[in-house]
Amino acid sequence: MSKDSTRSMPVPVATAATVAVGVAVTAALDLALLWWAASAIGVAAAFATALWADGRTRGAGDPEGVREKGTTLHRTLVVPTALVLSVVAGMLTGWFLDLSLIEPVAAVLGALVGSFLAHLLYRRLSAMLALSFGAVAAAGVLAIAVTALVLQLSGIPPLATFTRMLEYGTRPDSLVQVVNDGTTYYLAAVAVAIGFKMKLFNIGVDGQYRLAALLAAAVGGYLVLPPVLSQIVVMATAVAVGGAWAGIAGYLKVTRGVSEVISTIMLNSIATGITAYLLSTDRLAVEISTNNIGTPPLEESSWVPGIPAGFLGSDREIFGLVVLAAAVGIAYSVMLNRTRFGFELRATGQSQSAAEASGVDVKKMVFLSMLFSGMAAGLVGMPQLLGASHYYALDFPTGIGFIGIAIALLGRNHPVGIVFAALFWAFLNQAAGILPFDGYPQEIAVIAQATIVLTVVVVYEIVHRWGRRYQQQQIGKELGTAAEPKEPAAVATGTAAEGGTGADGDQTPGDGERGGEAK
């Protein structure tokens, strides 16, 4: 009987069974335990069900996680990582839903999400991706330890400080601010990541988005257009200005060989000078208040309505252009992984000489990469401009471009990784806002952010190199196994070399009987 014939459970049935076990266990334990404990135990039970059902499923092919099953790395790293991720995801979902739903319903829905991920992650999580999660977790632990040590040496209780930051950062109003800040951080990080994929360091995102926001705000303030068309014109202006400003650096790179680091730093300074020159009451600005000047306020037809955050328990609104950030992330992922341009971009970033030998126009790719990076950078200021301030003034947020560099590094230039990195960075900024009121220095968040960036880069590089060696060893073992010579088939009364009767009863000639034909 073949191995596949013993697998009688379809994958959808296994998934349903896994989710049903997780939800049922959570619902039963929620009557006697705290909701988070019930959810964690329920998702763990669902994960055990996924392990049990995996050997009995059929018709699923061999996903990467299944192909690696049985290896030491899969047992010691992939399985624990999948378990932890599914449990954490279930608990976070339950906590988030508990802000707007009753506790039993939130716990059950959280368990449903965690149980589904338990089945999915066990089958799909690869060793390299698990290594990436492990690197981030190790870097986070190191960063917390270093920050705690600094606090302890400064005479500040680490545990009380972290508890206070966590309590303040998870308030409903704080969560809304985290999402809003994370939206702009995400756009900046994507702009940086496009250059990173090409091994280009676009350090000029800050100047590109500020100049783009200023000119887009001026266009929107002086032109009165109907809704939708007005928003399109403002954002198109920002995209054009950001792309043109970054395109200067790309043009200098491909025609004169000027390093994009040097050119974008210089262009940042020039953009700052141009912004200061134009933001004057004699040119584009008007008086906003006694101590503030800015572009004429946008007409209400240009505003992008916010999303009510009542489901979070807050009276504030989430930027409506959070949808724009999601669309940019999807477009970035599709462009990178589903288009010829994305393939050539990654190939050129890995080796320009190899890409050029394959027929890729390297100079064209460099210029287009900088152009697209600048176009994404032009959108960084749009959530704030169209969703909150409605004009560009002296107090418009600055420095977001440099934050985007750190977030792109934390997220490893991955569209999903950047989401978590942006939200985490925004959370630290918001959570640190309560510290001065308690007499603690707000720079604690800066220490934590800098330490996390450093440790993530170092730890991830170490883990990535080890993972590559592990993969090479596995490939070597597979090739060695495939290259091993097979044992000669035995015959009934002798081998073919010695002569004798073969398996079919015919007389097999020996070496001496082959004569000249054998020679």
UniProtKB/TrEMBL annotation:
Domain of life: Bacteria
Chief location: membrane
One GO molecular-function entry: transmembrane transporter activity
Transmembrane intervals: 12-29, 35-55, 76-96, 102-122, 129-154, 174-196, 208-225, 231-252, 261-279, 318-336, 365-385, 391-411, 418-437, 443-463
This protein's record includes keyword Acyltransferase: no
Places the protein is found: Cell membrane
GO cellular component: plasma membrane
Topology of the protein relative to the lipid bilayer: Multi-pass membrane protein
Parts forming coiled coils: none
Keywords of this entry: Cell membrane, Membrane, Sugar transport, Transmembrane, Transmembrane helix, Transport
Pfam (any one): BPD_transp_2
UniProt xrefs under InterPro entries: ABC_transp_permease
Chain spans, region Disordered: 479-519
Name the record gives this protein: Simple sugar transport system permease protein
Annotated organism of origin: Nocardiopsis algeriensis
